[in-house]
Amino acid sequence: MVGATVGRVRAVLRLEGLCVLAASAFVYSKFGAGWGVFFACFLLPDLSFLGYLAGPRVGALAYNAAHSYIGSVACLALSLAAPSEVPLAVGLIWSAHVGFDRALGYGLKYSRGFSYTHLGPIGRLAREAANPSIERAVAGKPAPAAHVER
Hints:
A hairpin with a 2-residue loop joins strand 1 and strand 2. Helices cover 60% and strands 5% of the residues. It has a two-stranded antiparallel ribbon with strand order 1-2. It has one domain. It contains seven helices and two strands; from the N terminus they run H-H-H-H-H-E-E-H-H. By secondary structure, the chain is mainly alpha-helical.
């Protein structure tokens, strides 16, 4: 897929997401508003999926707005500029969510559709890319015979 990272770069970006998740959770444990709030708010950025009801372009825009680090870092910066627990907690929870998604391989979306991300295809597209015979079976074509080199 053009525009998607592959190989070691993809692995590094996923590891980076895991590090952001761990760091956000650690800092939250020191300065947060309690684990109940953390878990209650952790999946809130996924409400951006509702944008896909208006089509892939709007969906990608909504998803990317909620799943980039821009908003979470802005909240963290605001908490430093005007010390308050709310933007700090929001920024840490939001960063943790984005890091979690990146660690799982869910990247920013392209307007082509939900399965097209900057970290590579996800869902059915990823399965088809990993095993082209799935695509042939779905299309009703027989899978090619396995080739074994000796």
